[in-house]
Amino acid sequence: MTLSSESKLQYREGILSVEQMDRRRFVATVSSGLTGVALSAAAGEAPTGGKIPRIVLGRTKLEVSRIALGTVSPPDRAVLAYCAQQGLNFIDAAPNYANGRSEEAVGQRFRELGLKRDQFILTSKTKSRDPSQWPNLIAESCKRMGTDRLDIFHAHSIGGWGGRPGQRIEDSTTWLLKSEVARAVAELKKSGLIRAFGYSCHVTQRDWVNELIRESAKGEHIDVLMVRYNFRELGDRELAESLAIAHKAGQGVVAMKSQAGAKDSPDKVKPFLEGGFNHWQAAIRWAASNPSVHVVCANMTTLEMARDNLTAIKQPHLSARELNQLMLYAQATASNACRMCATCVPVCPRGIAIPEILRAVMYHDDYGDGQMARQTYGEINPQWRADRCGDCGTCERVCPNGLTVRSHLARAARVFSLT
Hints:
By secondary structure, this protein is of the alpha/beta class. It has helices at residues 5-20, 23-31, 77-86, 101-113, 134-145, 165-168, 172-176, 179-191, 206-216, 237-248, 266-274, 279-288, 303-314, 320-332, 354-365, 370-378, 394-398, 405-417; strands at residues 54-56, 63-65, 67-70, 90-92, 121-126, 150-155, 194-201, 224-228, 252-256, 295-299.
């Protein structure tokens, strides 16, 4: 499958629409209670009955469904059965998801459902930056999933993990391009343990991320990248151009964290839901509408979520009205969704790891995965956790998105003190 010229034009027009709507008009429209805002006819439509579209994932030559099943939570049997029936063939896993239980669940579900390994693309990851450890780590992941190989193997969470963002970012681009990494990847491919190599990145400091994407596109051994990309990046031309560079270089581009939910602000979401707007589907469509994005990865824990997401990927075209509604939703919930840009980190007098804390909260609230939330929070240095916040408000004064940071930190302190 290739992306049509219609979808490319639609994406460019979407960016243009964002630029033409200034903030004052945006806020005024939201404040009016959505009066006169037309709803998209596409949102909430029934499935067409067709299979999920597929696309070749860059130079990997792997034919993958345009949506991948994320397994931050162990995959539900009914969900995986439904996804497989609809043509989803891409499963994203990692050994740290549910402390290995997600990978074990993938293997178990395959056996229970009689799914054929050769009909699926399996991904796993590692946080190890020591290539000599990779063969054993891959073997362990394969054993848990009941396979003898991985289709894609990622260096997980490039830019660091589980600490204060301002202090944890390594020179990841240089590391990725090292000859020892390239040699290790070549050996893994030659041995048949993997078919493709890539990286995932949760960091959202834009200058750093854009440099990472553009420089790593020069690495011939880097086949796939998996980055945070969602509708809250509306109008971010520089990021879109970076992804286009990776795409042109032949790399497969996978968008993660595409939902950017706001479950903790039901009062702000309610008007949209009552109007019939399905923000979950619109979020999937928006990410998939970028012609540089091959695949959107989504965690799906219920059949309702799976039906919504798969319906959306079968109709990956945002109408102008649906785009405007998504813009309004993004603005209305901006103060409740951390973009993890880390602007707040260097100015916090106590060095609180705000983005990492709010990522743990995201797993707790949006994913409903208490174990992953606790694990993520537990990896943060105790001196940088939420209960160390001095409530000075500096973070809120510098937040470019108006996030009510202190209330989120206070809630995190309560949630994780009870777990």
